[in-house]
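User: My collaborator sent over this chain with a note saying "see what the structure looks like." That's all I know about it. Can you take a look?
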Amino acid sequence: MRKGKICCVDQNGGHGIIKDENEQEIQFFLLDLQEEIRLNDEVSFEIELTARGLAATKIHIVSGAELTL
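Assistant: Without extra context I'll predict from the sequence alone. Here is the result:
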């Protein structure tokens, strides 16, 4: 699994971009999402060759750090 941050979401175009740990921009398609995402969400994902080209798939929001008391 790769990790990155959501840097762009185009609701009208139906796609977005994730910037990964290596500063590479990878597109994803909103129809493929299993969870609701927002800008700057940190996510884990895989890259696959889809009918629309290379794209991030199996995108999941990375859980935040737990608070300790």
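A starting point for your reply to your collaborator: Residues 35 and 60 are 7 Å apart (CA to CA).
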